[in-house]
Specification:
- This protein has 4 helices and no strands.
- The protein is an all-alpha fold.
- Helix 1 crosses helix 3.
- The longest helix is centred in the first third of the chain and has 30 residues.
Length: 113
């Protein structure tokens, strides 16, 4: 029997490195696909959205990639088509931002007399 000289910590570090490398490859593939299917203005708009609302940008990116894989996108997607997609996504998302003001009455201090 051959005994490995690597400690379990080294093996776990290699596994973590492989996972990070795999994630980097997936990110690169995603960027390549998005660059191929979006024109320059649409890509710039998507990057701007990603800075403000990253979860919405991720939804749009996944939607675009899925459409590309199913061959539903012919040619490049322009800024106007991207805006239409964003409007569709915003219609389906619930309105999550709501501010409630809880106004409480302030009792009068006897010290203020």
């Amino acid at each position: 029997a051959v005994v490995s000289t690597q400690s379990t910590g080294e093996l776990q570090a290699q596994g973590g490195g492989e996972a990070a490398e795999k994630q980097a490859r997936q990110q690169e593939m995603k960027n390549n696909i998005l660059t191929a299917i979006l024109d320059q203005k649409a890509r710039a708009r998507l990057n701007t959205i990603a800075q403000v609302k990253p979860e919405r940008a991720q939804k749009v990116e996944m939607m675009l990639i899925n459409m590309h894989q199913r061959r539903q996108i012919m040619g490049q997607v322009g800024e106007s088509e991207l805006i239409k997609m964003l409007e569709e996504i915003s219609k389906t998302e619930p309105k999550g931002t709501k501010v409630n003001f809880d106004r409480r009455r302030v009792t009068l201090d006897s010290d203020s007399d």
